[in-house]
Amino acid sequence: MFxxxxxxxxxxxxxxxxxxxxxxxxxxxxxxxxxxPEDALFVAPDRDLQIVAQGIxxxxxxxxLHRFYxxxxxxxxxxQGGDGHKDMRIDEIVLWYAHEVRxxxxxxxWDKLKTAMRGASFxxxxxxxxxxxxxxxxxxxxxxxxxxxxxxxxxxTEGGEPTNKIYQTAMLFGRGxxxxxxxxxxVNLEEPEEGECAASFxxxxxxxxxxxxx
Length: 214
Description:
The protein is mainly beta and about 210 residues long. Helix content is about 5%, strand content about 45%. The chain contains 2 helices and 12 strands. The model is unreliable at about 1-10 (pLDDT under 50).
């Protein structure tokens, strides 16, 4: 769960987490890709991907979110754990697939989506079909809950100041698949300092560290 992201002391160099950092390549084990059930919306990459940008979020309480953006903008690799410098703890690795990205020009469309994100469930359109996900964050409460807000610092060069900062409003949902595994949906509203605002609908799958080759 995201917490306070302010009062941070920036590192002068980018962290390396699970052998991942800017400029490295990674691939997902072919066996892991074959285990994805047919009812999943998730799509796995079928080739090596090079990391061309790296994002860092300080979640507070000695927990960090590290995001690695490859040269295929359909995917995002995320590691949650320590700071990647003194604390190399890895709590979770998730690979995200961009199911859809919307550029909402009208304030009412943006506000309507924010309202939908507060619900105990979220219905995702998939062509002519729809798929329902249940809220994962704050799943102990049946009523509406406010999405989480956080700031991600994006680097596309080693060291120095971030090249962009993105304020994001997000809520996490999930559903069970036919093989007993879980599929996640991150509804993420992105407001960058530089660039166009967007709403991303990311389908995620947890990956074991041994199934990720770098």
